[in-house]
Each structure stands twice: as structure tokens, then as C-alpha cells.
Specification:
- This protein has a domain at 1-89 and 327-389: Cytochrome p450 (Orthogonal Bundle), CATH 1.10.630.10.
- It has 19 helices and twelve strands.
- The chain has helices at 22-29, 31-42, 61-70, 79-83, 85-88, 97-107, 113-133, 142-159, 167-177, 183-192, 198-224, 233-242, 248-278, 281-292, 302-308, 310-322, 354-357, 377-381, 401-416, and strands spanning 45-50, 53-58, 75-77, 139-141, 329-333, 337-339, 342-344, 349-352, 419-423, 430-432, 436-438, 443-448.
- The strands form four sheets. The chain has a five-stranded mixed beta sheet.
- It starts with 21 loop residues before the first helix and ends with a strand.
Length: 451
């Protein structure tokens, strides 16, 4: 795709609304449909104005690769994550430049292969414990149950802490903070959060709750000292602080990001996977057979189990194609950027939507169908790499991508070998906020297997 003469944003293809605020109204009402329609109607680079900014949706894998990988240094995080600094501070998700590169190098070893072997055992034990707590005929809210599971895993794996007593409160606080990503909060948040509005009171309460949770984690680690096996993530952050390599607030912010982002996306991926399996009994039966064949493996072999759950991983990949927990990525060019003839002005908003690209029929025939077989080696080889980017890409790719995939595969196997889950509602709508959540929850009934 060679560059050609620059086209001014006003000449780039896109909707031209006569009534001001129409794009904001449509985006706020249903961002998934809005972005899907843009790509369908206007092609791989679509321009519109949102909150007074030139905004571009990039739908082609090559464009996405260029922004996230080849020219990543020419972009910063988008408006949404810039404003999320009010909540997350300067953690890995929101940092930029040298500070991000330095701190990522500091944290990366906690997600290497050696650590993952130990994490896998925790993941397996927690998933089995959850499955064994259910009873035949019980109704569970699957999205909430998966959030609790993944929060407990993050607590024990990354922080050596049992968060079961705080799980519900942390979940409620995260729910309250999600509103910060609403377009109106992105624009007026610094003013709104100081008002007596109910939403502002919930926001302030949520920030106080999470501040206390993180401070308690840090204090507990100080009192216990590093673990004998070399320590966990927080031990290593505190060691960096003691060595003068990181300030106390940065340690706090990294802890908060790892705690929240480390469980929310995986929980949503699992919830949507259970929903899809419930509607595709053949795939469900195949996953169950694969999982039950490994049931005799001892818990300490959890890591080896992951490598043998081939079909289960394909199911997860297909579920994350259809319902990507991170459904959009935003960037902003530091200077005017020419992309195949389109001028993206400095400071404009550049959106790349997993929801849109993952459902593009050019890369996925019958894109609305759930077909785990799309993830065989042969099928994958025929697609551009960035036709699928659930964890982003390039130097800002999710640091916990391997952690999340391992956890999800083990949870699917542990629960799928013991139960069927049957939906109690006909339809669940995706709610596109920070992550892609099931709107209104996902009530399902636990059904015993035929032994």
C-alpha cells in the first residue's frame, strides 16, 4: 500500500452530519454498530469528528500493523487512556516514552516461562475450586463468577494474597469506574467528579476503595518481606523503589493496573466463551472430551496440560475473535502522519477496532459464525497477522497476554470437564465500555454431565 499525495481530513471518506453532535450520539448509543457501519460504508480509513477532534477508524490489518508496530514511536495512547490516568495514574497501561520502556523491562520477567509454570498451578487449582463449589441446577451469574475467579488468580499469582473477602467490593468499584470512559466523562470528567451527582459520588467511593486495596497490598508485603522463591511482582516493584529506580506512586499505579486489567479482560473472554459453547453443543462436547482426557494429570502438571489443550485454545481464540474483551485501541499521532494518502493530523484520534477487523469477511468467511477450526495452523497461515489482535501489538502489546490465555484455557478445561452451562436468557447484548462486557450479566444454569 504505497503512500500517495496527502488527502486533507475533510476529504477523507466518512459521514458528514448536518446536526452537530450526531457522531457523539451515535457512538455513545452503540459504538460497535457505529464503527462497523463506518468500515462497511467508507472503507479501510474512515474519518469523522468526535468531541471536536478529527477521528479516524483504521480497519485494514496493514494499517493497524503500521500504527502499532512499525511506527509505534510516532504515536501516543488515545484520548480515552489519557483521561484514564485520573483513575490509573502512571501505570503500564497509561505510561508513555522512556518511563514505560524502563518499567516494562522491570516487570516483564514476572511473566516469563519460568513464572508461568508456577502460575498455571494456581490457575488450575482456583478453577477447580470454583467448579467444585457449584451444584447441579444452581443458577450462576457467569460474568460475575468469572470475574471473581480471575481476581483470585491475580491476587494469588501476582501478589501472594487471597482477595476473596474483597472480591465483591473490588468488582463494584470497577463497575463504578467504568463510567470514566463515557464520552461525556472523557470531556467533562475533571469537573463532573467534583459535583454532588450520584455518579460522581460512586466514582469518588470507587477510587477510595481501590486506593485502600492497593495500600493494604503494599503494607502487607512490607510486613511479610519477599517470598523465599524470589518474590512476586509487588516484591520486585518494592525492591526497585528501595533501589531508587521507581518512586512510591509509580509502584502504587503499576499495582493497581495489574490488579484491575489483570482480571477484567480474562473474565470477559471466559464469559463470552461459555455463552458461545452453550449455543454450539458440538464444540462444547469436543472441548469437554479433550478436558476430561487430562483429568487424571496431577495439579502440578497444569503447565503441561496447557500445551495439550489444543482444541480448547482454538475455542478461546474464536470466542475472542467474535467478542474481543479489548474491542478498540486508540492512538494519537505526535506529528502529522501520512497513511496511504490520508493525512492524520497531530493530536487527532486514531481508532483500531478488534470488533470491526475480527469480523471482516475478507479475512473470515461467514464472520458471524463460531468456528474454532479457523485457528488450525493451515487456516491461520492464510490471514494477515493483524487481522487478529486481541492483545494489541508492537511495543505496547499486553504484557499479560500469555498469562491471560493460559488462565482462560485452564479455566475452560477445569470447568468444562465438570459441568455444562445453559443460558437462562435468549440473548445477551455486548456492552462496549473499557472492555466488552455482557450487558445485564449472563445468568446460566449449572447442569451435571452424563458420566
Amino acid at each position: 500500500m504505497p503512500n500517495t499525495a496527502a488527502v486533507h481530513p475533510s476529504q477523507s471518506p466518512g459521514p458528514r452530519y448536518r446536526i452537530p453532535g450526531t457522531a457523539l450520539w451515535r457512538f455513545r448509543r452503540d459504538p460497535l454498530t457505529f464503527l462497523t457501519d463506518l468500515a462497511r460504508d467508507y472503507g479501510d480509513v474512515a474519518h469523522f469528528t468526535l468531541l471536536g477532534r478529527d477521528t479516524f477508524l483504521l480497519a485494514h490489518p496493514e494499517h493497524i500493523r503500521r500504527v502499532l508496530v512499525e511506527d509505534a514511536h510516532r504515536f501516543v495512547k488515545g484520548l480515552g487512556l489519557q483521561r484514564m490516568r485520573r483513575v490509573l495514574g502512571q501505570g503500564l497501561l497509561t505510561q508513555e516514552g522512556p518511563a514505560h520502556r524502563r518499567d516494562r523491562r522491570q516487570i516483564q520477567p514476572d511473566f516469563d516461562h519460568r513464572r508461568m509454570v508456577g502460575y498455571a498451578e494456581i490457575m488450575w487449582q482456583e478453577a477447580v475450586s470454583l467448579a467444585e463449589s457449584w451444584r447441579p441446577g444452581q443458577v450462576v451469574e457467569v460474568a460475575r463468577e468469572m470475574n471473581r475467579l480471575t481476581l483470585l488468580v491475580v491476587g494469588k499469582a501476582l501478589f501472594r494474597t487471597d482477595l476473596s473477602a474483597q472480591a465483591e467490593t473490588i468488582g463494584q468499584a470497577l463497575d463504578a469506574l467504568i463510567q470514566v470512559t463515557e464520552p461525556l466523562w472523557l470531556t467533562f470528567g475533571p469537573w463532573l467528579e467534583r459535583t454532588p451527582l450520584p455518579s460522581a459520588r460512586r466514582y469518588r467511593w470507587a477510587r477510595a476503595v481501590l486506593e485502600q486495596v492497593v495500600q493494604t497490598l503494599i503494607q502487607d508485603h512490607r510486613q511479610r518481606g519477599p517470598a523465599p522463591d524470589g518474590g512476586d511482582v509487588l516484591d520486585h516493584l518494592l525492591a526497585a523503589m528501595d533501589a531508587g529506580q521507581m518512586d512510591p506512586r509509580t509502584v502504587h499505579d503499576h499495582t493497581l493496573v495489574l490488579l484491575l486489567a489483570g482480571h477484567e479482560t480474562t473474565a470477559n473472554a471466559l464469559a463470552w466463551t461459555w455463552w458461545l459453547l452453550a449455543h454450539h453443543p458440538e464444540a462444547e462436547a469436543r472441548l469437554r472430551e479433550e478436558a476430561r482426557n487430562l483429568e487424571q494429570d496431577p495439579p502440578e502438571n497444569a503447565w503441561k496440560r496447557v500445551t495439550r489443550l489444543t482444541y480448547t485454545r482454538m475455542v478461546l481464540q474464536e470466542a475472542m475473535r467474535l467478542y474481543p474483551p479489548a474491542w478498540v485501541i486508540g492512538r494519537s499521532p505526535l506529528e502529522d502522519y501520512l497513511l496511504d494518502g490520508h493525512m492524520l493530523p497531530a493530536g487527532s484520534s486514531v481508532l483500531m477496532s478488534q470488533w470491526v477487523t475480527h469480523r471482516d469477511p475478507r479475512w473470515y468467511p461467514e464472520p458471524e459464525r463460531f468456528l474454532p477450526e479457523r485457528w488450525s495452523a493451515e487456516a491461520r497461515s492464510g490471514r494477515p497477522k493483524f487481522a487478529y489482535f486481541p492483545f494489541g501489538g508492537g511495543p505496547r502489546v499486553c504484557i499479560g497476554a500469555h498469562f491471560a490465555q493460559t488462565e482462560a484455557v485452564l479455566a475452560l478445561a477445569a470447568i468444562g470437564a465438570r459441568w455444562r452451562l445453559r443460558p437462562l436468557v435468549d440473548r445477551v447484548q455486548p456492552q462496549a465500555r473499557v472492555t466488552l462486557r455482557p450487558r445485564g450479566g449472563m445468568p446460566m444454569q449449572v447442569m451435571a454431565l452424563d458420566r
